[in-house]
Design the sequence.
């Protein structure tokens, strides 16, 4: 008796769940709202709006929305308005795949843009590839993204993670041999992007004969940097390189200061370009180096327009995440305008992909081209805190200030 | 050599905080046989309250203790009386795990709701200050956190040893039946014990917020090591938990030199498995631990 | 009458599962169906230990994650047939579960729970750090078992049926154990471990076997998911949340019933999508799960199926045989007896 009741219940649940699937579907505003000439171009995006990657995720969201508004105010794409559908993937790989599945199959989007974070790009790109969609992504710079055999993927930023420090490495190489640093300490978060940046520089420095004295990798959730700092301080390395995201860099710097360690050169990825960084570190930022793919001061034509528009609507100039999102929009828009189509069928998407393979796109981070795996062929600018402000110091033709080689005490 | 000394200092400072928090966990287990998964979620909650307090008032985060300690004590008593005591005694241990787990999830969700997932850190004017002893640098904030933990642990110890309430509490832990027979209101004592445990989370959270980044899902990072500590120390034994916390904190700090950060973290869990294989009642636990 | 309605219910459920891919309006709904099937497999596998012995493991993500990685790595490193790799992965994980079970089942509940959580955390650390073997934080891409000519919606369909078959095997195994002498012994442990022991049930061995069987099926579920999803990242595989979903689903449906975990999986799987659609941009899904779990623990610890069947029985008193009612009453008496003796074990321990 008991079993039969439970069976009947499960059958009931099964039937009602079928009815409920209808509810999940109807949640989205009309799958096929008409694909006429004037219907808006629907663009599907999944972003980490909650969870561990939510902070940069929200930056990317602001960038995408600003781009869409800007396009719509200026006549749209192919004369059609663009409409963004942004879902929250909760910083979760299972969710990000489900989100793109939903966007493509249920919401019937015409184009997709990429999510944030290397860890989410690979599962998302897989879905896009399976449905033949072009996949331009604003974050996902790690080498591993480009070695998975995706033929639909393009990274909308100047350089992959391993090349972020190229200009700095060049500058050090240009020094007379006896002025180069002798030893270097590396601490990197166990994250493909953060590690990529630090190890890219490590490879270059080791080639020059700079000895690696500390090489630490810490899990992303690390909050206590005392022991890592102790190791670095004990080695008294000339250079300290942090493959960092944001808060870990702040923690590491505070921990290093607590141990009174004074390097000649200190470079950290991502964090120093964050506007909150000087607030968190205080006045001791002087001389800290960081690679950046974007600066509001960049001389490129469309950048001025972007900075003005963004500053007007948001009150602050855009940061790197916003710029990468805007760049993604620019890249896809360029392909759409050139090919003259924006619909989900495989033929159109393939034309978009083929066009990007062959052509250069002018963006807010400069002209971009890609190799066959989607790696952009540029390098990052190097910024440094000079007189309390973050300025471009490398390469020399873009420099706003001179590179300080002997870092003041922090 | 100086690295070894430095790691030793860092290990002791870390161990102090672990000891305070593990003492709280042990209290819950002692009075109620409850494995309190939400302990570290409350820890993070207190850290957030300290951060929020400093951000809105500009005062030192330690002043927030005046608010959070009584608040957490109250929450602890209410939680024990309204939630934990509702569970069937026969399945108490298992169901309390789930109940406190669900509380932890709710706290994490609400923190994310209120303060977003952004990592936060209190900026203190003395954040980078340090002084040197025997070639090792001691950070002022870490020392404050340690002293806070040490003083609270000392006060807890005195409370348990010297006061009448402490005696009642220890009697409830050791032998609830007998405690009831001699007229101790074990229900009320259990409630207060729970409140005390949660108060340690308030203090620990504030100490943590002084020198660390906080984010809503951080509590998972703490619950594992704390659980390992109370098993190694012997479930229900407060001195055992404190000693295990010190030993494991030091061990982790020293092992980071040869092994690196990630592998050193596994030390807690290896100690946990080794303890269960060799001495399931823990190294300092009494007969109480044998049955759980 | 009884067997007829039983067969009818089973038939309806099977018919629904067979027809679902045809009825699903689009590939997204189909993929949700695969996820729910996968939940059902994992929750049913969890219930081998949770339901029979009453030991609540919050860390079954350890076994699903290990199964997923074992499958993926076997396929990549040895080029083995993916289905064989999945089976081999399940066996490897089962072997791994033996020492873990020995360590955690020697003592009663509290340590078992602590070990289950610790295991997930330690595996997360190991799989993150041991990058050269596991792919570390870069993740591990698992090759698809079907060629590229099988389009994604068809992949979903095939994996839906494959998961359904695995679920059927797990359910059948559960049912067989439930009716066996072994199952009776396990249930005795759940109700009162001390009494079971004194009646001569080899409690430790029984618990260990149930635990290993559970780990085996969980690993198969993880392996099949890996083959479908194609990408493994340690932070998502070894996540306490994944393990706690299994607990929530089983508990919600009812851990004492064969179909309880399946029902729980359908409800939770649907609720996850619903909450996501309604409260997507907030952390509310955590709060919702937390509150739901708390409500179940406090007010419905036996789950929906027992609660609903007792409700149904109340409306149809004549349908229930006298014996059934007595059995339920007996269970209640047993429970209140256990309540009365709650502190006794401690006293006994002191006497020894």
Sequence:
């Amino acid at each position: 008796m008991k079993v039969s009741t439970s069976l009947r219940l499960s059958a009931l649940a099964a039937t009602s769940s079928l009815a409920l699937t209808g509810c999940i579907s109807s949640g989205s505003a009309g799958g096929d709202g008409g694909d006429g000439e004037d219907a808006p171009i629907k663009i599907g995006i999944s972003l980490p709006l909650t969870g561990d990657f939510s902070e940069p995720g929200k930056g990317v969201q602001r960038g995408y929305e600003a781009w869409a508004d800007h396009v719509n105010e200026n006549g749209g794409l192919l004369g059609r308005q663009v409409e963004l559908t942004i879902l929250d993937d909760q910083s979760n790989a299972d969710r990000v795949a489900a989100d793109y599945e939903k966007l493509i199959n249920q919401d019937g989007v015409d184009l997709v843009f990429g999510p944030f974070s290397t860890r989410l790009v690979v599962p998302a790109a897989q879905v896009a590839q399976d449905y033949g969609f072009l996949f331009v992504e604003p974050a996902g710079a790690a080498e591993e993204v480009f070695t998975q055999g995706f033929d639909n993927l393009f990274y909308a930023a100047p350089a992959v993670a391993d090349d972020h420090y190229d200009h700095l490495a060049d500058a050090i190489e240009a020094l007379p041999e006896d002025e180069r640093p002798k030893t270097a300490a590396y601490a990197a978060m166990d994250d493909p992007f953060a590690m990529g940046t630090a190890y890219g520089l490590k490879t270059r420095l080791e080639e020059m004969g700079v000895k690696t004295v500390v090489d630490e990798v810490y899990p992303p959730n690390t909050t206590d940097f005392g022991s890592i700092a102790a190791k670095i301080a004990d080695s008294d390395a000339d250079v300290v390189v942090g493959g960092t995201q944001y808060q870990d860099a702040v923690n590491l710097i505070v921990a290093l200061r607590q141990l009174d360690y004074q390097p000649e050169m200190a470079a950290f990825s991502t964090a120093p370009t964050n506007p909150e960084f000087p607030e968190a570190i205080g006045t001791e930022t002087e001389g800290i180096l960081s690679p950046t793919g974007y600066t509001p001061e960049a001389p490129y034509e469309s950048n001025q327009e972007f900075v003005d528009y963004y500053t007007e609507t948001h009150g602050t100039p855009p940061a790197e995440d916003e710029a990468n999102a805007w760049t993604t929009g620019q890249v896809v828009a360029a392909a759409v305008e050139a090919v003259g189509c924006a619909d989900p069928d495989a033929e159109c998407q393939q034309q978009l992909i083929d066009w990007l393979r062959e052509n250069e796109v002018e963006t807010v981070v400069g002209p971009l081209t890609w190799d066959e795996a989607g790696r952009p062929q540029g390098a990052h600018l190097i910024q440094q805190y000079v007189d309390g402000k973050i300025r471009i110091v490398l390469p020399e033709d873009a420099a706003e200030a001179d590179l300080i080689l002997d870092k003041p005490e922090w | 050599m100086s690295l070894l000394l430095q790691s030793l200092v860092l290990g002791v400072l870390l161990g102090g905080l672990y000891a305070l928090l593990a003492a709280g966990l042990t209290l819950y287990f002692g009075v109620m046989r409850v494995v309190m998964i939400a302990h570290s979620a409350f820890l993070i909650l207190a850290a957030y309250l300290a951060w929020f307090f400093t951000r809105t008032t500009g005062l030192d985060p330690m002043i927030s203790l005046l608010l959070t300690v009584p608040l957490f004590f109250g929450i602890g008593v209410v939680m024990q009386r309204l939630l934990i005591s509702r569970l069937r005694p026969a399945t108490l241990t298992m169901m309390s795990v789930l109940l406190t787990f669900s509380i932890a999830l709710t706290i994490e969700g609400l923190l994310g709701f209120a303060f977003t997932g952004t990592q936060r850190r209190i900026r203190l004017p003395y954040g980078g200050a340090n002084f040197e002893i025997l070639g090792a640098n001691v950070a002022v904030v870490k020392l404050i956190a340690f002293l806070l933990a040490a003083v609270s642990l000392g006060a807890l110890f005195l409370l348990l040893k010297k006061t009448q309430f402490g005696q009642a509490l220890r009697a409830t832990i050791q032998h609830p039946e007998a405690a009831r027979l001699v007229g101790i209101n074990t229900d009320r004592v259990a409630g207060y014990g729970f409140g005390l445990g949660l108060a340690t989370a308030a203090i620990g959270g504030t100490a943590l917020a002084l020198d660390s980044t906080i984010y809503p899902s951080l509590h998972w990072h703490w619950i594992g090591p704390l659980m390992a500590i109370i098993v190694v120390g012997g479930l229900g034994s407060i001195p055992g938990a404190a000693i295990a916390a010190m030993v494991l904190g030091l061990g982790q700090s020293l092992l980071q030199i040869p092994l690196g950060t990630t592998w050193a973290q596994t030390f807690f869990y290896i100690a946990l498995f080794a303890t269960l294989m060799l001495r399931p009642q823990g190294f300092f636990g009494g007969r109480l631990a044998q049955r759980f | 009458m009884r067997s007829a309605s039983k067969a009818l219910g089973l038939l309806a459920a099977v018919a629904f599962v067979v027809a679902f891919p045809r009825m699903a309006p689009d590939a997204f709904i189909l993929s949700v169906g695969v996820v729910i099937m996968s939940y059902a497999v994992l929750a049913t596998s969890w219930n081998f230990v949770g339901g029979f012995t009453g030991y609540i493991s919050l860390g079954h993500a350890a076994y699903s994650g290990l199964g997923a990685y074992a499958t993926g790595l076997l396929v990549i490193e040895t080029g083995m047939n993916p289905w064989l790799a999945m089976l081999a992965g399940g066996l490897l994980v089962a072997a791994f579960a033996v020492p873990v079970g020995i360590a955690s089942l020697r003592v009663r509940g509290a340590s078992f729970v602590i070990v289950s959580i610790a295991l997930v955390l330690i595996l997360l650390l190991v799989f993150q750090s041991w990058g050269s073997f596991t792919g570390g934080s870069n993740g591990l891409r698992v090759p698809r078992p079907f060629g590229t000519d099988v389009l994604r919606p068809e992949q979903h369909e095939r994996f839906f049926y494959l998961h359904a078959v695995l679920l059927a095997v797990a359910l059948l195994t559960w049912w067989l154990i439930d009716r066996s002498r072994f199952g009776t012994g396990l249930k005795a442990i759940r109700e009162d471990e001390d009494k079971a022991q004194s009646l001569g049930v080899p409690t430790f061995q029984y618990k260990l076997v149930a635990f290993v069987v559970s780990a085996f099926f969980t690993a198969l579920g993880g392996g099949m998911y890996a083959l479908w999803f194609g990408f493994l990242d340690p932070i998502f595989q070894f996540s306490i949340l994944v393990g706690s979903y299994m607990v929530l689903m089983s508990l919600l449906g009812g851990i004492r019933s064969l179909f309880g975990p399946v029902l729980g999986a359908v409800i939770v799987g649907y609720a996850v999508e619903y909450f996501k659609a309604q409260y997507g941009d907030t952390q509310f899904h955590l709060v919702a799960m937390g509150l739901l779990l708390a409500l179940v623990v406090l007010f419905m610890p036996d789950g929906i199926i027992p609660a609903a069947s007792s409700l149904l029985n109340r409306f149809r008193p004549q349908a229930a045989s006298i014996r059934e009612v007595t059995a339920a009453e007996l269970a209640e008496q047993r429970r209140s007896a256990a309540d009365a003796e709650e502190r006794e074990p401690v006293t006994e321990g002191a006497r020894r």
